[in-house]
């Protein structure tokens, strides 16, 4: 039986898909890739894109064609940012080694990073991927609380280690969730039958039901693990009238003895425009925060930041060592990214351009009933495609047709949620000229889709 993963398969070219209709050079490379990388890998689009270079919010294929990247949050300050490239090269030419030797870079960066966090979050550990950061975060939460239960959202993706895969429903039915994991529906104000101001109470009730279910089975809750913009579920920032809607759910978890792990791989580093960190938009202070590769514009590094007493429950008993987590080259890249974010005021830029992006997309979609909702915060926007505006039934086919129409116009993005939501999250240097190009392409794609 063929199983499907919403996050991996919805907009995918899979090994074994026919290559006969592809350009000869593309087909040859796809066949070579499939021959050595195995069946688990996926490519994007019906006709895969062969990229060789990037700059800012743009990438270029092997034929020199310019594509607008409206998907890559990892290249946070832009592809091949000169300052990041220079920092990597300079440190790589001097030394790259592990964290069991003293080195200034990891200390300097840690002080700078923690300076952007709430005062209570005052310790940090380093790893190489967001998956590892979330894996460690759950281990820390379990050590601190004595519980094992974890609550996640229904289409969450938190990583690909054995532990985090079992916390990631978006990976599909072939990946079983752990017995002590429970899911809650995403806080979707477009479909949830409650007023915006009641969204927080409704979501807290969903979490409370799962806490109670765990307790009935003798399982104590350890953590609520969430990406505060619910990016894999379909992009759900707080709607008007529901600012801070996560706070009541987090309080439910804390009363049960658990902690809040804020997965900031997607909403962090100023992307939402309102705040440096997604959790700050909800007026909450997490016990644990996890960060991923956007912190170094794609260089493999991630982090777990935590409150001292929470981290001590693990660290005072179990020594931890990640060979190249926090190595000097990665720290140089991360420091350069943080410097660019702060000095170029990219959080403010995300707020300004993101607001215009949201308004322009809504205007372009106003006469197209297949667009059910356009929502977002800063440079993170979801476009919800529906089969019928009355039933609000998700339309995956329409979303994929729009994604492919954009790709034909050399604008790159993908989908999330059940597969019907366009996920727009460009590098933070995305500007008004890029926005004009996106809106022109989006308008053309909707026209091609028809009514």
TrEMBL record:
Segments traversing the membrane: none
Keyword Amino-acid biosynthesis: no
Record's keyword terms, sorted: Aminotransferase, Pyridoxal phosphate, Transferase
Gene3D superfamilies: Aspartate Aminotransferase, domain 1 (3.90.1150.10), Type I PLP-dependent aspartate aminotransferase-like (Major domain) (3.40.640.10)
Tagged with keyword Transferase: yes
CDD domains: OAT_like (cd00610)
UniProt xrefs under InterPro entries: Aminotrans_3, PyrdxlP-dep_Trfase, PyrdxlP-dep_Trfase_major, PyrdxlP-dep_Trfase_small
Superkingdom of the organism of origin: Bacteria
GO MF annotations, alphabetized: pyridoxal phosphate binding; transaminase activity
Positions of the UniProt region annotated as Disordered: 1-23
Similarity remark: Belongs to the class-III pyridoxal-phosphate-dependent aminotransferase family.
PANTHER family in the record: ALANINE--GLYOXYLATE AMINOTRANSFERASE 2-LIKE (PTHR45688:SF13), PTHR45688
Name recorded for this polypeptide: Aspartate aminotransferase family protein
Organism: Promicromonospora soli
Lineage, opening ranks: Bacteria, Bacillati, Actinomycetota, Actinomycetes, Micrococcales
